[in-house]
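Protocol step 6 of 9: fold each sequence in the batch and record its structure tokens directly after the sequence line. For illustration, a two-sequence batch is reproduced in full.

Sequence one:
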Amino acid sequence: ARHLLIQLRSAIGWCTRRQFISTPDLMLLQPKDVGVKPSIGETTLSYNQLAKIWMSIERSRGSTSNRLLHQLLILYGARNSELRLTVKQEVDREEGLWIVPAEKSKTKKIIRRPIFDAADTLLKKAEMTYGEVLFPGEDLKTPITISGANKFLRRIRGSLGIGDFSSHDFRRTMATRLSEEGVAPHVIEKMLGHELGGVLAVYNKHDWISEQKDAYDLYADKIFWHLKKISG
């Protein structure tokens, strides 16, 4: 409700300034009067928990598309929509990059992430299985819907008994675990697809691809070590 009011006020303000409409009483209502600010999530998962989630995904009866999507969400720490809407040409094999175009990015800026070994295996499987749309829904022509992806993860969560978590928590988990491993903050920010602040955002267009790749490899190795441990 709060976000909707902010958007409505913006649209009404635009119309009012151009004298398309008179100022309505709605403009007297402030965002602070409606609802509450979204709470900041606190959930972070251990490597052991990530390994259990991975194993549950692997053993689930969900579609190959949904399984691959969520395993890559764990590894990349990307936003759900960035991966879910990926098409084949956004995976640049020649440059070794997965590129999220500006129109699919929350920041409205291109996001570049390296294709590292563990992700490469999953991306190739998606390409060979589905073709142009890497993570399709039931029609195999359009991407999985957000509701379809969330429904899959709810089933996985319900089967584990390790508490509540969402795909967004994979992002916070990756950032936290890699900070513990000593990965530089600006590298983690690039991995998350965040814009760097201040002068860096204006002048420094470097994506630290090599450093990202090292961090992703380290993260995947940690998860797979725990996966091997719990699977015997």
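Sequence two, same batch, same settings:
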Amino acid sequence: MHRNTITLRGKIVFDPVDKTKKHEAQGSWKKVAMIFFYGDLCEYYNWFIERRYNLPLVKPLRRAHVSFINDRGSDTNGKWEEVKRKWDGKKIDVTLDISPRTNATHWWLIVPEESRGEIHDIRAELGLGRPNFGLHMSIGYAKDTYDKDKLDTNGMTAKRMNEAHSKYIHELIIKGRIE
């Protein structure tokens, strides 16, 4: 077990309410299940990243959660409703490594490999292998903000260059200059 982890109790939700245009557009063929956490964990990590790196992040629309099924319905071996009845609304413990990770734009906490067993078991009941993206809880993402009153020839000028700043932080992390 990692020494810098926290274990949270979350609630499994199959077929969560559509909150995005992408989810709505893909809803006819895609199956989704998530583990939702109560509390303000995303808000805390947003605050932490902003204080540590002077980098405000856009919080996840669905708040603190781990998406563990985000696959084609045709890949779920016809057992979606059966597995949904078994697991929907159940509580599950999820361990997170508390060290934030980034790909230069998005920030997240990982579910350590040795803590993924029960979640992978639920996927296996549907005939699904490991997810394309490793199991993680999104913290947020960097997005430039604009001042609409100050227009240049392209329309607007960025007020805060958060994306470039996030990429710079990522480069410093890779080079081992900061943690």
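Proceed to step 7 once all outputs are recorded. Observation for sequence two: Residues 41-53 form the longest helix (13 residues).
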